[in-house]
Specification:
Elements lengths: L6 H4 L1 H10 L17 H11 L4 H14 L3 H5 L3 H8 L6 H16 L5 H5 L6 H12 L8 H11 L9 H15 L1 H14 L17 H5 L15 E12 L2 E5 L15 E3 H7 L12 E5 L3 E4 L3 E12 L9 E5 L10 H9 L13 H10 L3
Parallel strand pairs: 1-6
Antiparallel strand pairs: 1-2, 1-3, 2-7, 4-6, 5-6
Helix pairs in contact: 2-12, 3-4, 3-7, 3-9, 9-12, 10-12, 11-12
The structure holds iron/sulfur cluster.
Iron/sulfur cluster (SF4) binds next to helix 10 and helix 13.
């Protein structure tokens, strides 16, 4: 670290730049020299901002704070209501973590050090350090994607900066002490979000005189990116089954990408083609009112789904398979669902797509009835 410039010197211009250029955001405190007046607002914003753009988060944050203004109101809310308010933000596990964390806080008050914050459910090293520095003015460096990009460029680190996290924290800490933990933490994030983005606007940047990547002309090579994770592609049928004014839906699970959300049954196309050998028998339920619509591609971080939506009406209900339940049609609109499942729900009242693929109805029914979700 001896070859790095002194953080207590070179972060001065960044601090000055932030004072003049900081965006007005609903979770930001006015006075950055004091502890934040509402640590809960910091926690909510940090969890919402993970993997999500500021512009998307702002209206969600406002609605959330209106409905759940403090830890106690969130701790006593139902999971369904929480997920309904989170609907559309994605990465739904964050909502569950938030509730579990504030339940502890409502019970025992806020932890006042990094270890205590790290012990809260769902708070990893980044979120715990962000809350420590922004809410409580503790000099705990918070390194997210923006911070890694800015710091690796300023310091000219030509290897994966995430592998240098401890070194970067040790370098940054005296800067937090010198200029204020909340101010510098947010200034680094702000620079990464506005000027030092993947195509940096160096001429406008307060770090230009000392930025190593800029001096060496290697801003396009830094940060060194990690090997991308392989994306799995899946073809599937997303199935809305209706009978006797009820819909069959999968109950929320505690884990996974769509945890806490209600889902439609799914049958993967590959499964139908390769394993459903005995599926040529006629549909025992004589499905009625089969509708299909144009499909779409649903993209998640490590998965791309080619979705074919279908709705099938049956004359009567069958026993709901484990993990699923028939819910009254009137309740469908109030269930919290992820984007993919919301999309099928919103298609249901619309006319089917002319000429779309014919659903292999009997096969789909057999799988939905037999396969544990
Ligand atoms: S000078 Fe350019 S590369 Fe360096 S921190 Fe500023 S915007 Fe980023």
């Amino acid at each position: 670290m001896t070859h790095f410039p002194d953080a207590t010197v070179i972060l001065g211009p960044l601090s000055d730049w932030f004072a003049l250029n900081r965006r007005s955001l609903p979770w930001r405190a006015e006075n950055l020299d004091l502890p934040h007046p509402d640590p809960y607002a910091v926690l909510v914003s940090e969890l919402m901002l993970q993997q999500t753009q500021v512009a998307t988060v702002v209206p969600y944050f406002r609605r959330w704070m209106e409905r759940f203004p403090d830890p106690a109101s969130l701790a006593s809310a139902s999971d369904d209501e929480i997920h309904r308010l989170w609907e559309g933000l994605g990465y739904y596990r964050r909502a569950g973590f938030l509730k579990r964390a504030v339940t502890v806080i409502a019970d025992r008050d806020w932890p006042r050090d990094l270890e205590g914050l790290l012990a809260l459910p769902g708070l990893g090293p980044y979120t715990a350090a962000a809350v420590a520095s922004i809410a409580f003015q503790l000099p705990e460096p918070a390194l997210d994607g923006n911070a890694f990009r800015v710091l690796s460029r300023v310091l000219g680190i030509e290897q994966d900066p995430r592998r240098q996290a401890n070194l970067l924290r040790a370098w940054l800490k005296p800067g937090l002490v010198r200029f204020g933990p909340s101010r510098i933490t947010q200034a680094v994030m702000e620079l990464g979000a506005t000027l030092c983005n993947p195509k940096p606007a160096c001429p406008l940047c307060p770090m230009t005189p000392c930025c190593k990547a800029r001096q060496l002309g290697v801003t396009d090579r830094i940060p060194v990116t990690r090997t991308p994770v392989a994306i799995r592609e899946i073809d599937l049928w997303l199935i809305a089954l209706q009978a006797e004014a009820h819909w069959l839906v999968l109950q929320p699970s505690a884990k996974g990408l769509l945890s806490g959300l209600w889902r439609w049954p799914v049958v993967e196309l590959g499964f139908l083609e390769t394993k459903d050998r005995a599926a040529e028998t006629p549909d025992p339920y004589q499905a009625l009112d089969i509708k299909t619509w144009a499909g779409w591609i649903q993209v998640y971080s490590h998965r791309k789904e080619h979705v074919s939506p279908v709705s099938i009406g049956l004359p009567e209900r069958f026993k709901a398979p484990a993990g699923s339940v028939w819910i009254p049609a009137a309740d469908l609109s109030s269930l919290p669902m992820g984007k993919r499942d919301q999309r099928l729900r919103s298609l249901l009242p619309s006319p089917p797509c002319q000429g779309s693929a014919v659903a292999p109805c009997a096969k789909l029914l057999r799988q939905v009835m037999a396969v544990k979700p």
